[in-house]
Amino acid sequence: VRKDFRESSMQSRPEHETLTDLELGHSFEASKLQVRTNIYFMYYENQLINTGKINDVGAYTRINVDYSHRLGIELAAILRPFDELDVHAGFTYSENKIASFTEYVDNYDDPNYEQTQIDHENTDMAFSPNVIGNLGFTYRPFDGLSLNWMTKYVGDQFLDNTSNQDRKIDAFTYSNMSLNYTIEDLVFKSITL
Fold first, then answer.
1. Is 141 helix (H, G, I), strand (E, B) or coil?
2. Per-residue pLDDT averaged across 117-143, rounded?
């Protein structure tokens, strides 16, 4: 982003990231069932990550790490047992790793204000849960009206790239429900409430 260049000098400018994305997918469709699968491997060279390091102009910036990757599988399905009902589900399992990097932590007790360096290997990427799943349905009892419900599970995720258990968002589940009614050809072509 612009900040990476604006708040740096020529000596601390980041290199460009390179992403190689390999994916293999398959889909199956029948009158009452759709299933999609996807396997992916994303290999990053010079991925920019935040390490806490202060650059030579006093700003926290991101730095390049040599190697990181995302490897996972995605599954999605929609089942229509009868015309008024769709049941949908999805699941993703992934590994999101940084091979190695050095974390920099502010040390306010040091009279020279030197940052402490901590080396990390094979850590999880920040904000990248390994497991995500959802289950829900859409019910249309008559034309214009639909009831939608979806529950989603999001696995543990870390706030930074250190895999530190004290900087983790625990897994959570949430649900959304909505009732929609569409009126057609009344003032407008259609209005959805």
1. strand
2. 95
